């Protein structure tokens, strides 16, 4: 089971994406961010967005899958 919390990515939000497949959870959190945090995302630079995606991959890649820092 893989879990990632929107709050762990710097957003003031309680959303949590969970699933068994890494790609499934990554897509769910990115979809949530694009829909619910559109304004913040529009204010981010390309480097900030790349850093966000890297952070998602890093958190989901942890062996425990809990998404905790």
Automatic annotation (TrEMBL):
<dbReference type="Pfam" id="PF06348">
    <property type="entry name" value="DUF1059"/>
</dbReference>
<protein>
    <recommendedName>
        <fullName>Small metal-binding protein</fullName>
    </recommendedName>
</protein>
<dbReference type="InterPro" id="IPR009409">
    <property type="entry name" value="DUF1059"/>
</dbReference>
